Amino acid sequence: MMFIKNDKVALRIAEPNDADIIYRWENDMRVWRDSETLVPYSMRQIEQFLLNNNDLMSEKQLRLMIEDAKNGAQVGCIDIYDYDAFNSRAGFGILIDEKYRGQGYAKNAIKLLLDYCFNSLLLNQIYALVLATNITSLFLFESIGFERCGVRKQWCKTSEGFIDQVEYQYINKK
Questions:
Q1: 80, 94 in Cβ contact below 8 A?
Q2: Other CB atoms within 10 Å distance of the CB of residue 143
Q3: What pTM did the predictor assign?
Q4: Which of 171, 172, 106 is nearest to 141 (CA)?
Q5: Options 3.40.630.30, 3.40.50.1110, 3.10.450.50, 3.40.50.300; CATH of 4-123
């Protein structure tokens, strides 16, 4: 069952049968730096999250699967987190499977997410945090219209040294 879609992508709620692919993505150490992950997740932890905790209203977070609108391939996921109904804002993060990067899936998924956040959740703004070394994501957010609103200096520690983290906001203009 599709949640929302356009010609390129469809977003839907993550289901328990998505556990295998989410397990693979969450335990890919190459993306841990961007997601601020330090330890692997067990399959049980992922299954429990999908069964019990994937609820925006009670848990303040929601994972949506990104699928190719034409063939249904699972190309990534997008998370709403830090949902704050009172202040009308939320953060979000996105992951696109390596073999689908650079094909417009992220841009289309973010645009659908903006529509959902502003027209269904009635949020005033959403924000994203991006490592300064993630040039592709920095360009992506700016191309969509996110505004750079701050830089957290030397925010993330790595084996090569500290990396800045860039803060982006997108404020609903309606």
A1: no
A2: 10
A3: 0.89
A4: 106
A5: 3.40.630.30
DSSP state of 58: H
**Is residue 135 within a helix (H) or strand (E), and if so which, with residue range?**
helix 135-144
pLDDT digits (tens, 9 = 90+) for 102-159: 999 999 999 999 999 999 999 999 999 999 999 999 999 999 999 999 999 999 888 8
What does the alpha-carbon distance between residue 125 and residue 172 come to, in Å, rounded to a whole number?
6
pLDDT mean over 41-63: 81
The residues, any chain, with a CB within 8 Å of residue 48's CB and separated by 6 or more, are none
Neighbour-count burial for 46-77, b at 16+ CB within 10 Å, e otherwise: bbebbeeebebeeeebbbbbbbebeeeebbbb
